[in-house]
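User: I'm preparing a small set of examples for a lab meeting where we compare how different chains pack in three dimensions. I only have the primary sequence for this one, and I'd like the structure in token form so I can line it up with the others. Please keep the answer compact; I'll paste it straight into my notes.
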Amino acid sequence: MYLPEDKIMLQSVLNTLLRDKYADLSQLCEGEDVEEAEVDALLQKHGLRYQAATNRVEE
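Assistant: Understood. Below is the structure token output for the 59-residue chain.
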């Protein structure tokens, strides 16, 4: 899976997948064949974090 470098695009892509296709970030990473550590690092780089309670990526 291609992970956008742009903060807004990254947040939008991940939230769309989480809303429409996956129950949580772990399932998204497994389903899209991307390392969860890579996603976490990119989120941290942009000041974002995954919120399990809402199943969303937020600031």
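A couple of notes for your slides: The first strand starts at residue 49 and ends at 51. The chain has one domain: 7-58.

User: Perfect, thanks.
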